[in-house]
TrEMBL record:
<feature type="domain" description="HTH cro/C1-type">
    <location>
        <begin position="10"/>
        <end position="64"/>
    </location>
</feature>
<dbReference type="InterPro" id="IPR050807">
    <property type="entry name" value="TransReg_Diox_bact_type"/>
</dbReference>
<dbReference type="InterPro" id="IPR013096">
    <property type="entry name" value="Cupin_2"/>
</dbReference>
<dbReference type="InterPro" id="IPR014710">
    <property type="entry name" value="RmlC-like_jellyroll"/>
</dbReference>
<dbReference type="InterPro" id="IPR010982">
    <property type="entry name" value="Lambda_DNA-bd_dom_sf"/>
</dbReference>
<dbReference type="GO" id="GO:0003700">
    <property type="term" value="F:DNA-binding transcription factor activity"/>
</dbReference>
<keyword id="KW-0238">DNA-binding</keyword>
<protein>
    <submittedName>
        <fullName>Transcriptional regulator, XRE family</fullName>
    </submittedName>
</protein>
<dbReference type="GO" id="GO:0003677">
    <property type="term" value="F:DNA binding"/>
</dbReference>
<dbReference type="Pfam" id="PF01381">
    <property type="entry name" value="HTH_3"/>
</dbReference>
<dbReference type="InterPro" id="IPR011051">
    <property type="entry name" value="RmlC_Cupin_sf"/>
</dbReference>
<dbReference type="InterPro" id="IPR001387">
    <property type="entry name" value="Cro/C1-type_HTH"/>
</dbReference>
<dbReference type="GO" id="GO:0005829">
    <property type="term" value="C:cytosol"/>
</dbReference>
<dbReference type="Pfam" id="PF07883">
    <property type="entry name" value="Cupin_2"/>
</dbReference>
Length: 187
């Protein structure tokens, strides 16, 4: 596992949070010496240990298994490389007439998730939904109605809005025609 430089990744996570070896060890339940040995790639941690470390630092365990070459500071996704993501935030997403395409799916441990969102029809479903984080919407085509709690907000091409995602919300086309939006969601 040392070829993956797992120790350096753990050390980087610890230093980014400005934590000491002792603080991390206390929270995870290991000795500072063991954490130091792992960070220096002197010990290959078992999956169970990595899982505890990943949970503590709020990263996916896969973060530790990405080759360093794959972990650069940017990601390019060409239009023909977008990945469709169904039912991203609500289990009823498709009944709302929404379809999502991920605009960043290779970069790990992002603080935000960008999507190209298409509202394809005027939804009959009246359910709103909420989730953790914040959301930014930018309308690139069409006219959309955003319902935030009980407030109706009309947005047209070029308009944008930033809001707390814990507010119950839903989108629908104002005229039944396709609407395209850039949406960015934080955790």
């Amino acid at each position: 596992m040392s070829g993956l430089n797992i120790g350096a990744k753990i050390k980087k996570l610890r230093q980014e949070k400005k934590l000491t070896l002792q603080a991390v060890a206390k929270e995870i339940g290991f000795s500072p010496a063991l954490i130091s040995q792992i960070e220096n790639n002197n010990v290959s941690p078992p999956i169970a240990t990595l899982s505890k470390i990943a949970k503590f630092f709020d990263v996916k365990i896969g973060y530790f298994f990405i080759e360093d070459d794959d972990e650069c500071g940017f990601e390019i996704v060409h239009a023909n490389q977008r990945k469709s993501v169904s039912k991203v935030f609500a289990p009823i997403g498709t009944s709302h007439g929404y379809s999502y395409q991920s605009l960043s799916f290779r970069k790990q441990n992002k603080k935000m998730e960008p999507f190209f969102l298409t509202v394809t029809e005027k939804a009959n479903e009246e359910s709103a939904y909420s989730h953790d984080g914040e959301k930014f919407l930018f309308v690139t085509k069409g006219d959309v109605e955003l319902i935030l709690d009980d407030k109706s907000i009309s947005l047209s091409e070029g308009d944008s809005i930033y809001f707390d995602s814990s507010i119950k919300h839903r989108l629908r086309s104002r005229d039944g025609k396709e609407v395209n939006l850039l949406t960015v969601v934080t955790r």
